[in-house]
Specification:
- This protein is an alpha/beta fold and 264 residues long.
- It has one domain: Vaccinia Virus protein VP39 (Rossmann fold).
- It has ten helices and seven strands.
- The chain has a seven-stranded mixed sheet, with helices on both faces.
- Helix 1 crosses helix 8, helix 6 runs antiparallel to helix 8 and helix 7 crosses helix 8.
């Protein structure tokens, strides 16, 4: 992995570590009612089919989907880049009496064998990947031949608008200063909050899918990257999110192409 990629990964990890303590407080992130819990169980039961399935929750955060799949009786692994998110997910699983294999890991470089899972799910993850093609390739690699890929996504901002807003905040010269300072800070292990927040905002605006994708564009991307039988289902039921969705939310599912590589 290049040093540039390593630096971006570290900044993204820092951002989500910082968000972990309040992540579940945001509408649409945590579980707020029994009605909401049942709505997700109904959706995920239909998605996964009869238990037990081997389920991988990529970018699992504090374990929202992983916990629901475990409730349904599936064998669940959850992976997230943020150690703080994983710590919270483990505590929630322990409190719920669920056995879930939570691990710190990179969604685009999975430490999992080929064809290890029947279902790979990711909720609001692909937009945060510096290399979405590599991420999808990894997700397909770990899927069994009859496996299914499921992405829960949305389109909450325009990528070009985010980039323009970011460019107004930071001149080229200042951006280079911030980048150089952030690189030194990351190597030192001491993380001044304000500087790394600004660095993350610049990275976020430059991510290929920053702000999420319209459903049609994600479907086209998946089909171009060896995902077959792509299907889009709108997820606009307020019960799922704890409020009426303020932007398009949807589920994209597909299967691994028969000619998709199962390994390097």
């Amino acid at each position: 992995m290049s040093s540039r990629h390593d630096e971006i990964t570290q900044v993204i990890r820092y951002h989500w570590d910082r968000r972990a303590s309040t992540f579940d407080d945001a509408i649409g992130h945590g579980l707020t009612s029994e009605e909401q819990r049942q709505a997700w169980l109904d959706l995920l039961s239909r998605l996964a089919g009869r238990a037990p399935r081997r389920v991988l929750d990529v970018g699992c955060g504090t374990g929202f989907l992983a916990l629901r799949f475990a409730e349904l009786g599936h064998a669940v692994t959850g992976i997230d880049l943020s150690p703080e998110m994983i710590d919270r997910a483990r505590r929630k699983a322990e409190q719920a009496g669920q056995q879930i294999d939570f691990r710190v890991g990179d969604a685009a470089a999975l430490d999992c064998p080929d064809e290890a899972f029947d279902l790979v799910v990711a909720r609001h993850v692909i937009w945060n990947l510096p290399n979405p093609q590599r991420g999808v390739g990894e997700w397909l690699r770990v899927l069994g031949p009859e496996g299914r890929l499921a992405l829960i996504e949305g389109n909450w901002a325009d990528n070009e608008a985010l980039a323009l807003a970011n460019s107004r905040l930071t001149s080229q010269i200042l951006a280079r200063v911030i980048d150089a300072a952030a690189a030194l800070i990351l190597r030192s292990g001491r993380y001044p909050r304000r500087l790394l927040i600004r660095k993350y905002r610049r990275i976020e605006a430059q991510l290929p899918f920053s702000g999420g994708l319209p459903a049609t564009r994600l479907a086209e991307f998946l089909e171009a990257n060896s995902v077959h039988n792509v299907h889009i289902e709108l997820l606009m039921d307020p019960t799922l999110w704890g409020e009426l969705p303020q932007f398009p939310r949807y589920l994209a599912t597909g299967t691994r192409s028969p000619d998709a590589a199962s390994g390097p």
